Automatic annotation (TrEMBL), chains A, B:
Gene Ontology cellular-component terms listed: cytoplasm
Top-level division of the source organism's lineage: Eukaryota
Keywords of this entry: Cytoplasm, Dipeptidase, Hydrolase, Protease, Serine protease
GO molecular function, one term: serine-type peptidase activity
BP term (GO), one: proteolysis
PANTHER family (alphabetical): ALPHA-ASPARTYL DIPEPTIDASE (PTHR20842:SF0), PROTEASE S51 ALPHA-ASPARTYL DIPEPTIDASE (PTHR20842)
Protein name, as recorded: dipeptidase E
NCBIfam families referenced in this protein's UniProt entry, alphabetically: PRK05282.1 (NF003642)
InterPro entries: Class_I_gatase-like (IPR029062), Peptidase_S51 (IPR005320)
Predominant subcellular localization, coarse grouping: cytoplasm
Length: 241, 241
């Protein structure tokens, strides 16, 4: 079941104190390599698509790549069919997923990534939609997508911006750990890889590796939670396909 | 358009350092009054319904009320039709709303509250589902309800457990304020009353009053956000019906 898939799934676009995509720019350049000249950007997670595309364009141009935004394309499906690489940015995951459905991009992106093997970069909401469902997004459900099923480029869930419980907090809302545990109270729920800010997951075919400077926690239904450092091999999570 | 509606919408079941419903128990007793003898509890927001009903029963019995849990009823719709008061507890709002739909309780509860005038108490998720939609829940979408439309007992949204932005935080996920602002970027979105922990909204017919010890922020699409202390009259929010 080896696929051509190549994914770079980033927890967060901006790390505290740094610029947009600064903390992961070297990974992006290495991941895209020399063959990619232009990247197709998907700005749907934010309301101001023009402004968002401008910020992304500036960054990718500074790294030596051209950037087209799918919201400027006459035919978004054709834009996907013809692209060399895709970058889906963060924002609100519900808004993003709904727009992917509204524009009929789910099958187009799946084919391009899983069959044609073009590189896919996701950040935050763009990482959530790369997984099997958006059940473990942190975002507010400001719109109602036709399903929580997402691109399914990997057969598990990711929780980006993972936050450890704060022992000093007096706030009584659920901790992130409690929320993910509630997800696993439901039947047949897949593993959740919770990646802290500063952390990213590189997937190449059937191999998955944690990159970045912070670690990740793995939550699995009916099993103990485990902590993993950058460099960890998460390929076994791909075997559920 | 005066309705018989009587609602007590609580931000949070437990306030830091206190017991279950302790911070609002005097409001509950005053709200239910002397005529109500038994309360129908809806435990759907948590996975462990038996345990949850036990906790709620203990608390309501200590206040002098009997408690039946709807999950123990042979026919949940009939249990609603025959009840004297309803209390919907907190947990996961998506799970709660899905179970309300699955058990066909939405029209039954609406009729009981809006036409028959029985008292409705909601806490956290139970407050979210009392409003027009659950678009402004803080919870993780661990299940997919058939709609985000909720009981619609009031024509606006509530954000419970409201948290002010933390200027010292290095976490880059959206603040609560940013999340609600993103909601209002969508067309035709109703006001959002953001109630801090320790805060509750009393609705009697066409009158709404903020109670408790903390304040609330009111977010309205295209208008400046405003801050309000306990005692504030929010009746104008009911006029959108
Ligand atoms: Ca987000
Ligand atoms: Ca909750």
């Amino acid at each position: 079941m080896t696929t051509k898939r190549r994914l770079l799934l980033i927890s967060n676009s901006t790390l505290h104190g740094g610029g947009y995509l600064e903390h992961c720019q070297e990974h992006i350049v290495k991941f895209l390599g020399k063959q990619v000249k232009r990247v197709l950007f998907v700005p749907y997670a934010l309301h101001g698509r023009d402004d968002y595309a401008k910020i992304a364009r500036q960054k990718f141009e500074s790294l030596g790549y051209g950037l087209d935004s799918v919201h400027e394309a006459e035919n978004p499906v054709e834009a996907v069919q013809n692209c060399q690489a895709i970058f889906i940015g963060g924002g609100n995951t519900f808004r993003l997923l709904k727009a992917l459905y509204d524009n009929n991009l789910i099958p187009a992106i799946r084919k391009k990534v899983l069959e044609d093997g073009i590189p896919y970069i996701g950040s935050s909401a763009g990482t959530n939609v790369a997984t099997i469902t958006i059940n473990t997004t942190n975002d507010m459900p400001i719109v109602y997508p036709p399903s929580l099923h997402a691109l399914g480029l990997v057969p598990f869930n990711i929780n980006p911006h993972y936050l450890d419980p704060d022992a000093n907090s007096k706030h009584m809302g659920e901790t992130r750990e409690q929320r993910i545990t509630q997800y696993h109270e439901e039947q047949d729920t897949p593993p959740v890889l919770a990646i802290r800010e500063g952390c990213l997951l590189l997937v190449e075919g059937d191999k998955a590796t944690l990159l970045g400077v912070t670690g990740a926690r793995l939550f699995q239904r009916g099993k103990a939670t485990s902590e993993h450092d950058p460099g960890h091999d998460f390929s076994f999570l791909l075997a559920h396909s």
